[in-house]
Amino acid sequence: xxxxxxxxxxxxxxxxxxxxxxxxxxxxxxxxxxxxxxxxxxxxxxxxxxxxxxxxxxxxxxxxxxxxxxxxxxxxxxxxxxxxxxxxxxxxxxxxxxxxxxxxxxxxxxxxxxxxxxxxxxxxxxxxxxxxxxxxxxxxxxxxxxxxxxxxxxxxxxxxxxxxxxxxxxxxxxxxxxxxxxxxxxxxxxxxxxxxxxxxxxxxxxxxxxxxxxxxxx
Length: 218
What we know:
Layout: H1 2-25, E1 29-45, E2 58-72, E3 78-82, E4 85-96, E5 102-120, E6 126-142, E7 145-146, H2 148-153, E8 157-168, E9 173-182, E10 187-192, E11 198-216
Antiparallel strand pairs: 1-2, 1-11, 2-3, 2-4, 3-5, 4-5, 5-6, 6-7, 6-8, 8-9, 9-11, 10-11
C-alpha cells in the first residue's frame, strides 16, 4: 500500500513539474486552474443475473480541484487537455446496527484524479468533451473516520469514462459540466439469496455529475 501511495505522489509531483514548465516556457498551450462541485453515487449491476440494485443507496455532494493544461491540435477545432487534481466523491447507505435497526451512513471517497479529455469546438465559445478519468483512491471515510479496512477491500485504481461540455463566459473564464461513469469497478462480490445460495455477482461503480469553473492563466 505504501509503495502504491508513493507512486501516486511521484506521478503528481511529475504532473506539477510539467504544469509549471508548460506555464513558463510553452507557447500556444493554455493552462490554469479549475474547481467545482459534484453529485456522486454508486451504480450497481448484477452481471449474469436478474437481481435489482439496492434502493437504499443515495448520492452525496462533493467537490474537485484541478490544474489543467490544454493543447490545440494544429488549426483544427480540436484540443487535448490533461487536468491533474483531487476529487471528493461519496454515497450514503443504510447499515444494520447491533440493535437490528438500520441507520444511514455517509461514505466519502477521496481520489487523486487525472481527467484526460479530447475536446471539439463547434463555435469559438462552445466546446464538447469526451475522454477518461484516471483515479487513485487515497482515503475512504465512513462517518468521518478513514477506514483502512475499506481501502484494502476495494479496487483503489479506477478508470472512468467522461462526457461533457464547456462554455467560455469571458476572456479568462469558462463554465463547464461533465458526467463520469466508472469503467472499472470499485467493488465486486458474490450475492446470496435467503437460502444462502449464490445468486450472482454485484458490481459497484462510481458515477458523478460535475459542474466546474475554469480560470485561464494565459
